[in-house]
Amino acid sequence: LSFMLEDREKILPLNHPVVMELRNPNGVVVQKIVRSKNVNGLYDFRTATLSEDPTGYWSAKFMVGSREYYHSIRVETIKPNRLKLYLDFGKDKLSALDESTVGKISAKWLHGAPARELNSIVEMTLNGGYTEFENYKGYNFDNPTRTFSAQQMTLFDGQLDENGEATFDVKINAGQNAPGMLKAFFTTRVFEKGGDFSIDNSSLTYSPYTHYVGIKVPEGTGYNNQLETGKDHMIEFATVDANGKPCSRKIEIKAYKIENHWWWDSYNNNDIMAFINNNGIVPHQSKTITSSNGKAKFEFRVNKPLWGNFLIIAKDLQSGHSTGSQVYVDWPNGSRENVNTKENATMLTFSTDKKTYKVGEQVKLTIPSTAEGRALVSIESGTRVISKTCIDTKSGETDYTFTSTEEMAPTAYVNITLVQPHAQVKNDLPIRLYGIVPISVENEDSHLTPVIKSPEVLKPESTPTITVSEKDGKDMTYTLAIVDEGLLDLTVFKTPDPWSFFYSREGLGVKTWDVYDNVLGAYAVKMDELLAIGGDGEALKDGEGEIKANRFKPMVYFAGPFKLKGGQKANHKVKIPNYVGSVRIMVVAGENRAYGNAEKTVPVRSPLMVLATLPRVLGPGEEIELPVNVFAMEKHVKNVSIEVKGNDMFTFKNGKSRSLKFNKPGDEVVNFPALIANKLGVGRVTVIAKSGKEIAKHEIEIDVRSSNPKIIDAYETVLDPGKQWNTSVAFNGIKG
Predict the structure, then answer these.
(1) Which pLDDT does position 542 carry in this prediction?
(2) Structure confidence at residue 531 (pLDDT)
(3) Is the preceding omega at residue 218 within 30 degrees of 0, hence cis?
(4) How is domain 2-75 classified at the architecture level of CATH?
(5) What confidence tens digit (pLDDT) does each residue in 10-61 have?
(6) Domain 212-334 belongs to what architecture?
(7) What local confidence, expressed as pLDDT, does residue 343 receive?
C-alpha cells in the first residue's frame, strides 16, 4: 500500500509519522504499522494476508494526526485469467433503432497466441440506467413513476474459430416500461479445453426508445423551491432522438393532483400511476402540443384554494417514452402557512465566460446589477480567501475581470455580495444579494509524464531492465509495479491516477455570513439559512497447523518509492519468475504538487510454452485427467516431448510422457490420466516440455483434502481405585 501525502500549507514537520491500520471484513484490526520515513510525502506500507484469513472487503485506515483516510481492499480466493477477452459491438451505445447489431468476441492467451476453437458464453443483464444529454442540462428524461426489473439473457453460446473469434446477432427487447435509458452489463466467459475459464465484464448504454422527451420545472420562489398559486409557471420540454439531437415531436402533457397517502407512499412510484389509472382520476390540466426544433413550453397554473403536490407527466406519442416531475404548489407570502418565501429572492445569478481556465488566463464575470451599487468579489478556495475586491456596479450588467493563479487550482469559488442603494425602488429585489459560482483552474506545471522503457517481449525466468524517466526532464518521486494482467482484468483495475484525485473539484471551505438582518430595516434575508455549497461527499481452530498448497503464485512485483532527478533515468532489474502471460508495468509519480502515471502492457512468452490445468482442490482416491496446453510460437519448434512428474500423491495411469509434432505455430492439448492417493496432503506436479534447445516448465501445487467433516471418537469407562484399563484404539480416518 502506498500513501501520498500532500501538505499544501506546509503545516507538518519533516518525517511526520503516518499510522496504517489494516482491518478484516469483521472489523478486527489485523495489523498496525507506523511509518515516519517517506520520500517527498510518499509512504510505503508492506503487509500480507494469510491463507486462512477471511475473504471480502478489507479496509486500510491511514491516520495523519487527527485526520483519517480510508481505502477498501478486495481479498478473494481467485484464480487469475489466462486469456485476454474482447467484446465489441462496433458502437458506444446500443439502440432500439438498430435493425441489426453484430457482436464480436475475440480471445487470446495472455502471451499473445489466439485462443482457437474454445467454447464461449456471452450473457447480458439489462438494468435501469440514467438518461442525460449533453446540451440539455437541468432536464429530467427519466420517468419517476416507472421502475425497470432486471432482465437476463444469453447472447452467445458457441465455439470460437481458428483465430479465437466469433460473431453473433444481438436482439434486445426491453418492452415499453423502461423509465429511460438502460444499462447493459455483459459477462463473457471463454473455456479452456482443460475446463478452466477466463472471465471479463463490460457495459454499454442501451436506448429502448427511438426518441425522448425531457422536462424542466422552473425554480420556485418559495420555501423548499415551491411554486406559488395564482401564477402561470412555464414548464419547459425538450424532445431529442437517442443521440441527443433535437427534433419536433408530438407531446401529451397531463398534470395530476396527488395526495400523500400511505397506500402508495409506502410502496414505489409505480403505485402512483397505478392509483391514477385504476381510479380514473381526471388530470388537473392536460394538453397535446408539438415541439419545434426540440423545444416546447407549457403553462402550468394552480388557483386558490387548491395547493399541494402535483405530478406532471409528458409522453412522446410516437416513441412511447414518457417523463415526469413532481412539483409543490402553495399560497404565496405565507398566507396559508408561516413560510418564508423571500429566501430565494436574495440569490444573485451571475456567470463566467468559461468553466475551465489555465493558470494565467483572464476570468470574466458578468454580474446583473443596478447603478450606484457596490459588489464585494471574494475569490475563495477549499481552505481560505485568496483575494477580495470591492467594485462599483453599473446599470444592467457589470463586467469584472481577474487573472487565474496557481493558488486557485484545482477549484476556486467566486463569491459575490451585491449591495443595492438603501431604500431603492428600482426593483423588488432585496437590498443585499449574493451568489457563488465555481471555476476550475488547471496548472500545466502540475502534470508529470513518466516514461517506461522495456523490452517489447519478456521471457520467463529472465532478468530484464526496466528504465523509468520523466518526459519533460522534471524531478519526480515514483513507485514501480509489475502485475499479472490476468489478475487486473478480474476487476478491470485502472492504473492509479493521483493527478485526477488531488486535482478533483474541491468543496468550498470558507464559511460566509453577515449581520444585515440586524442592522438594516430594508428587505434582507438570512444568508446562513440559504447558503450550502458542497464538495465531494467504501476452541481449536479448524485446520490449524496444516500444511497448505501455495495454489496460485501471482506475478506481482513492487518497488519504491524512488527519487529521480530531472533529466536522469533509472534502471530497474526485475526478476521474472516461471510465468507466461502478460504483465502491466505501472509507474505512479508525484513531486511538489505535480502528479502523473504511466503504464505499459508487455507479453511474457518464449518460443515453447506449457500450461497445465487442475481444479482448485482434489479429494483422496479421485481419478482425474491433467490437461496440458503446449504452445509452439515459432516455426523452428516442431517436435515436442512432454513429461510429467508428480510426488507420491499422483499415480499416472498411461505413462508420464507424450510427444507432439507441429507443422506450423499453434497450440495442442495432451491429457495425462492420474489417480490420487488415498491420503491427505499437498500434491505437486511438474510438466516439462522440450524441443531442441527450447525448454518450458510449469509447476502446480494443489491441496488434497477430504470433503467430509472431521469426526471425533470418544471412549468412556469407570475406573475403580487401583485398577487399570487397557483398550485398543481404531484409527478410522485416512492418512494425513
Answers:
(1) 42
(2) 37
(3) no
(4) Sandwich (2.60)
(5) 888 888 999 999 999 999 999 999 999 999 889 999 988 887 889 899 999 9
(6) Sandwich (2.60)
(7) 42
> What are the boundaries of each domain within the chain?
2-75, 87-208, 212-334, 347-444, 447-506+547-604, 608-704
447-506+547-604 CATH pick, 3.90.1010.10, 1.10.10.10, 3.40.50.300, 2.60.40.730: 2.60.40.730
Given a cut of 70, the residues of the chain with pLDDT beneath it are 221-225, 259-281, 333-349, 421-432, 508-552, 736
The domain defined by 347-444 folds into Immunoglobulin-like (2.60.40)
Task: At 2, list the grid cell.
Answer: 502506498
Instruction: Check if the beta carbon of residue 60 is closer than 8 Å to that of residue 22.
Output: yes
Spacing of C-alpha 385 from chain mean position: 34
Question: In terms of Cα–Cα distance, which of 581, 529, 534 is closest to 555?
Answer: 581
Q: Which CATH superfamily is domain 608-704 in?
A: Immunoglobulins (2.60.40.10)
* Chain segment 184-204, per-residue pLDDT in tens: 999 999 998 888 889 998 999
Q: What share of the chain is helix, strand, coil (3-state, %, to 5)?
A: 5, 45, 45
- Give the pLDDT of residue 538: 32
CATH class held by domain 87-208: mainly beta
Strands (E), 272-407: 285-290, 295-301, 308-316, 322-330, 351-352, 356-358, 362-369, 374-380, 385-392, 396-403
What's residue 548's pLDDT? 57
Up-side HSE of residue 587: CA atoms within 13 Å toward CB?
28
Strands 374-380 and 385-392: antiparallel
Distance of CA 687 to the CA centre of its chain: 40
